[in-house]
Amino acid sequence: MARWTAFATNNRRACKARPLSFAPAALAAPSVLLLAVCCALPLAWLVWTVLVSPETRSGLALSWFRWALLGRTVLYNLAVGILATLMALPAALVVGRGPLLLRRLLWVVLPVGLMMPSLAYAYGWSQFVRLCRPGFDAIGISFAPASWADVARCVWTLAAWLWPIPAVVIGLALRRMDVTVQQQAVLEGALWRITLRQLRSPILASVAAVTLLATQEFAVYEPTGISVVATEVRMVFETGAFSGLAQSVDPAAAQSSPTQASRAAAAVATALPLLAVTILLAGVVAAGSTRTDYADPVATGDWPRALRSPVWAAIASVTLAAITLGVPVVSLVMAMRIGLSPSRIWTEFGPELTGALLVAAGTAALSLLLSLVAVAVWVRGSLLLAGLTFLIGGQLLAIAMIRIWNPPAFAWIYDAFPLPIMAYLGRFGWLSLAAARGSWTSRWDELRDMASLDGAGRARTAMWVLWPLAWPSLVAAALLAGTLSMTEVAATVLLQPQNPRVLTPMLMSWVHMARYDPMIEASLLLMAMALVPTLAAVGLWSLSQHLAGRAAAAANAGKCASGSRSR
């Protein structure tokens, strides 16, 4: 504790000895510029297209096909949300009340599973089904493309990929419950009934969050021809017609070669009903989140024995984690007909691997810049703006970026790496802003107040007091944003051609092949590329929790010392 008190005192002296002041507007300029280009412009284009474009207005009339499309999209993905939440309940009990060692294990395993590339993950489960198919055929179960069995496979795949989200959300809510109330519930014999009543909001928020994310994924549904809104948006933008229909989506697109503007407007009209459902689900998530303050410190002590998670929850959570992580990877390895050769893999995928790393590094660097500025100066509405850009989905964001930046004057943006980096920053920049928002809670305000009393401005306070304590969480969020940019499918597939080339479009062209060694190799490579930064982010996040607690202790010690001097 003494060294952290000395840290705060020395940094306060640095703030006072080396004054540095910038106007808040100058400090916020990089953040405002990035948000304007990556978030505000796409949202403005979307609003303009809805209000002005005649193709969009004519496509808003919901036919029976459109109602059926929206209905099955919501049905399939709501099933994903419910199944993922049910799968997550044992792990949530362990995260909330389990033994320390098992909790730490889950805090590593859950993010790793969630950060697995959806395209490679789905291909791994399809290989598992293919390896098991002879036995299934023997008892009469078939997986014909777009059949109910195939839909069930897709629902399971998405649930197995997204179940860490409700596990973390419900587990944190469980850990913040009042121990006294829980002990009284034990005495009354109503522990589980009262606990479920207190967890209603986190459970509903978890179902809504998983459903929302599942509706934005089309890499799981598209390979076998299952028609959902996400697959139809891509089809409409690329061809001007719905899949399996002879007619075009609207009269303006009925010409033999629809223009890109008309196809983009028709794609927006196709996505708008689901976008309304997305906003509704986001409202449910926000309402559930306001009932639990996740910025508050989490109690780390042991729960009373009567409240600890049962043994069956520990066994179920470990088993489920092993299945959801191990089965796809093992299935990919077992499906290979040739051995892994690093030299051959580099020869075959070297340019795409280099391009993916370059784009990911650019996205991570700009995300870190965004969060550093947000720690120094918080721009009101920035997190809401970035959240709305994420909610519209990768496809609409990519279409907006294409329509904004494809004029010849912007060829240096459209035909080079700035375009995908801007799209990914608009899609995942909210992670960095959320991490920076954590530095504006009450325990950090005390540090700001101490520095301001010593005459430090915003820049010096951030440089000498806030950044040295907040950097682990900021770097962790930037690493996650960079990792997600490598594994993003919805935006990447539409942003064509890409310069430099990346792995995802190549994988998307191979995913229809039942058993293809280059696809398997590239899937394993992409999983490995996502694993390393994810583990680093988990370690940094754990470090940030310790630093945040030490910062609060240092601030309290500084206040006590100031009070003693005043007396």
Distance between the termini: 23 Å
pLDDT below 50 for ≥5 consecutive residues: which ranges? 1-9, 12-21, 245-256, 293-300
* Rg over alpha carbons: 25 Å
Mean pLDDT: 82
Range of strand content: under 5%
Number of strands: 0
Q: Can you tell me the overall shape? A: globular
Counted by DSSP, the helix tally is: 24
Secondary structural class: mainly alpha
Q: Could you estimate the helical fraction of the residues in percent?
A: over 70%
Q: What's the SSE pattern?
A: HHHHHHHHHHHHHHHHHHHHHHHH
Q: Biggest sheet, open or closed, and with what strands and sense?
A: none
Describe the structure.
- With 567 residues, this protein is an all-alpha fold.
- The protein is 77% helix and 0% strand.
- It has 24 helices and no strands.
- It has helices spanning 2-17, 24-52, 54-59, 64-97, 100-114, 118-138, 148-162, 164-175, 179-187, 191-198, 200-215, 229-239, 260-290, 311-335, 342-376, 382-391, 393-405, 411-414, 418-437, 442-453, 458-487, 490-494, 503-510, 517-566.
- Helix 2 (24-52) crosses helix 17 (393-405).
- The longest helix has 50 residues, at 517-566.
- The two termini are 23 Å apart.
- 45% of the residues are buried.
- Residues 1-9, 12-21, 245-256 and 293-300 have low confidence and may be disordered.
Feature tags:
567 residues, mainly alpha, disordered N terminus
Please specify the SSE layout and strand pairing.
Elements: H1 2-17, H2 24-52, H3 54-59, H4 64-97, H5 100-114, H6 118-138, H7 148-162, H8 164-175, H9 179-187, H10 191-198, H11 200-215, H12 229-239, H13 260-290, H14 311-335, H15 342-376, H16 382-391, H17 393-405, H18 411-414, H19 418-437, H20 442-453, H21 458-487, H22 490-494, H23 503-510, H24 517-566
Helix pairs in contact: 1-21, 1-24, 2-15, 2-16, 2-17, 2-19, 4-5, 4-7, 4-8, 4-11, 4-13, 4-14, 5-8, 5-14, 5-24, 6-7, 6-14, 6-24, 8-11, 9-10, 11-13, 12-13, 13-17, 14-24, 15-19, 15-21, 16-19, 17-19, 19-21, 20-21, 20-24, 21-24, 23-24
